[in-house]
Each structure stands twice: as C-alpha cells, then as structure tokens.
Amino acid sequence: MKLKYGCNPNQPFAEVVPLSGDNPPIEILNGNPGFINFLDAINAWQLVAEARAALTLPAAASFKHVSPAGAAVAVPLSEDLVRSYEVEGKELTPAATAYVRARGADPKSSFGDFVALSDEVDVATAKFLKPLVSDGIIAPSYEPEALEILKKKKKGAFTVMQASPDFTPPELESREMFGMRLTQTRNNDPVTPSQLDNVVCGELTDAARRDLLLGLITLKYTQSNSVGYALDGQMIGIGAGQQSRVDCTKLAGGKADVWHLMRHPKVLGLKFNDKVKRQQRINFRVRFIEGDLVDSERQELQAALDEPLELMSAEEKAAWIRDELDGVCLASDAFLPFADNIDHAAKHGVRFVAQPGGSIRDEDIETACKRYGMAMAHTGVRLFHH
Q1: What residue spans of 228-324 are helical by DSSP H?
Q2: Which of 12, 40, 89, 359 is such that its CA lies 20 to 30 A from the CA of 83?
Q3: In 3D, which of 256, 375, 383, 273 has the Cα closest to residue 321?
Q4: Torsion angle, CA of 175/177/181/184, rounded to 10 degrees?
Q5: Which helix (H) or strand (E) holds 150?
Q6: Quick check: pTM over 0.90?
Q7: What is the Cα–Cα distance from 96 to 67, expressed in whole angstroms?
Q8: What are 37-55's pLDDT values in tens digits?
Q9: CA 275 to CA 160: how far, in whole Å?
C-alpha cells in the first residue's frame, strides 16, 4: 500500500509491500499511516507481544521515533499514581492499566505517540485514548465499540492497525540503503526468565525479576545504545540512542527522577484553574519539576494556577528522590564498560541490575554493585537494535 510519505514530506514516494502475499502481518483498519508510523508499529507490536509471552500480563507501549517513550504491563496502580496519571474515577481494565502506565512514564515524550497493545482493545482503553494526542495504534483485535471510538479520532484520520498474532517473520531480514542491501538473521531469540539465573551478587526478588525482564524486552526494541529503569511493572526512564553508555544511564535516570517527582505532594497539590486541560496540567507539572522556566513559561504557569507559584528547591527534590525512590531495576542492552554507570544508577534508587556481562571490568562493576547493596545478573545476551 502507498504510505502518506517517507520519513519527511520531501520524500513523497513511500510504500509498504507485505512479503507474505495474501497473509499480511499487519492490516490497516483506519487512517493513512506514514513511513515512521509503520516503523513504530512494527517495533512496538513485537515489544508488547514478547512482553505478554514472557510475563503473562497484558502489555502496552508508547512509541516515538522508533523507540519507546514508555512500556508497561498491567500491574494495578497505587493511589498516588492514579492521581499523577489523572485517571481518578475512570474504568481501568488490564489493557487500559497497561497503557496508562506506558503513557505516564514520560508524558512529555509520549505526546503524539504510536500505541501498541498486546491484548484486545476494549472500550475502557479506547475511551482513555480518545482525548489524547496520539498518531495511531496497533493491537491484535478490537471490540466493535472500541474500534468505532478510535475511528473518530483526529477527524477520522487516526491510524488503526491490526496485527496477526500468528504471523511468523522470515529467518532473514534485509534493508536497502545507498544502493546496497544489508541482510542479517532476525533477532529471533526471546528474552526469557532463565536469562536472569546467573546472579553474580545479591538476590533478585520476584518483582525485580518481572521488572528486569520488562526492561530487557523493552531495550530489545529500543534504538541502541540504551539503558532503561523499571519499577512496579513499568519503565520509568529510558535512555535511548546515545553513543556513550553512561549518557544512557544518566538520561534514563533523569527521566526516572521526573516520573518519581510527579508523585511529590507539592506536584500533586498544584491548584490549576478550571480552564487548564489535562495535557496542559501534565506538561506544567513536568516543567514545574524541571524548574528551569524561562520568563514566558513562568508567566504561563502562574496564569494556570489559582495560587502563587513557588518552585521546589533542588534540596527538596533531592531529598524526595533519596528518601522515597527505591527498588528500581536497571537493564542495559550491552555490558556496562565502567563502574561510573553504577555510581550514577545509585543516585536514582537502583537496587537491581541486569546486563550481559563480558567486560574486562566486570569485577569493577560487581564491586560497585556490592558497595551500593545492588543485586546484579549477567544475562550473557546483547540486545543491540538499529
């Protein structure tokens, strides 16, 4: 089928051609997707399908530019997360819960996302998605009423894709670039619980095993280098596509801190006036946390509040992270080359680590983990993705 355009509007010709003939892996139910939409959908669907298989829970992902902004499984929300994600009084089925978590991980990045669900999209999920700024969705099936709700998004232009759960991709995959074809064996090996059996220090709890598996599966479909932080069945920070691994660790940790600070009483207690819409409130909370407001932003935020604006101090934020953020899992798509990754991870509540191992400095990494009381597993599997 012809696509809207390529990666950019000045690339007017774009199409997708299923290699399986009459049994395509993805069917378009609504909308006219673009090239990047398809890349997001393909990666996101593989992520949620693999997470569903490994964790036996409904899974969701929120993709932007071929990397997940968030990913999660259907673990019930705590009261503070219900408030932070602004879902008070809403029906939250398992599918809806998974997407609420995925979208809430990094709401600034998820603005205009492509959604993936491992399970059938029900009415509750469609109703939650209806008012959000989003480009499209992929799932194995849709309740009839849910499909009608989604078809009306974006004045009928919202992309709805249906994936075939029974489709088996070919053993080889190729891409053509600059007059050359590159072919490789597809990364068919699934992430499994047994990859966490080689625990080199400390002990993994059941919750940590779940979150580390989610982290590893997420990174398998994230542009490398990548490091991810997970907690309570969801990714809370993803550092994607960095050339330096420690930069991935810092970026993911910064996102995890913002996620955690969204639950701070001062953030949840901001008194917005009635004219401020949901997405604006979420955006304002993120900028309130980040704190580096320019004059125009400060004026806009003050105008949105029914109280004087008083930003949080660096000391307040540091104390909340230090005292309240704990039990976080860190997953890395390749070995940690230096112990500085562990030093930075310790600032963000990390207590459990999963990485391939195999560095000449493995002993240094293990020593650092022991110093901070972290448990670590060597998976023996690299998960680069480009």
Answers
A1: 245-261, 265-268, 278-290, 295-304, 314-324
A2: 40
A3: 256
A4: -40
A5: helix 144-151
A6: yes
A7: 21
A8: 999 999 999 999 999 999 9
A9: 31
